[in-house]
Amino acid sequence: MSKPTAFPPDESRLPFEIPRDEPYREKIARLGQMITDRIPAKNGILTKDDPEYWGLASIVTDEMADVALKMKVRKPMTLPELVKATGKPAGELEPLLQQMAVVGLLPDDWPQPPRLPRAGQVESGAGRVWPRTAPVRRAGCGH
Fold first, then answer.
1. Other beta carbons within 10 Å of 86
2. Taking Cα atoms as reference points, which of 83, 63, 82, 84 lies closest to residue 71?
3. How far is the C-alpha of 44 from the C-alpha of 91, rounded, in Å?
4. Long-range contacts of 96-103 (CB under 8 A, 24+ apart)
5. What are the beta bridge partners of residue 121?
6. Measured between alpha carbons, how far is 80 from 113 in angstroms, rounded to an integer?
7. Which one-letter DSSP state was computed for residue 11?
């Protein structure tokens, strides 16, 4: 069984310094709390010492945080849905979403082009490719 991770970390053992010269940004803390899976951070308020906070604060602008806070975690949204949720025009929102994807805040889930089934796979009616199962052999049937 592994030991629990202690936060705040022992900074003397880190190869970098945690930035503390910037003011606390509430939006970044709320975003970090929304997307983390670490229980203490999920249930409490993030501080500037938490890795979720300083990791996001270094790459996410307040404008990006505003948009991300209108989204749900792991639930895709279309551009028209985001325009409605944020109140920003699509022309302003698209470059911002591109920047958010570049810094890693949004997943790169572009639709994949259709592929032909490979050997050993069968295409279902929904266009998905599933592994072909082995033929069923029954005991006592003479196979």
1. 17
2. 82
3. 36
4. 96/63, 96/64, 96/67, 97/67, 99/64, 100/60, 100/64, 100/67, 100/68, 103/59, 103/60, 103/64
5. 131
6. 23
7. G
DSSP character at residue 17: -
Burial class for 1, CB neighbours closer than 10 Å (0-12, 13-18, 19+): exposed
Q: Would you state the pLDDT for residue 106?
A: 85
The conformation of residue 14, written as its DSSP 8-state character, comes to S
Task: Write down the pTM of the prediction.
Answer: 0.63
Query: CB-hemisphere CA count at 13 Å for 67?
Result: 25
Which DSSP category does 12 fall into? G
Q: What's the mean pLDDT in 54-63? A: 90
Closest by CA position to 56, among listed 77, 34, 39: 34
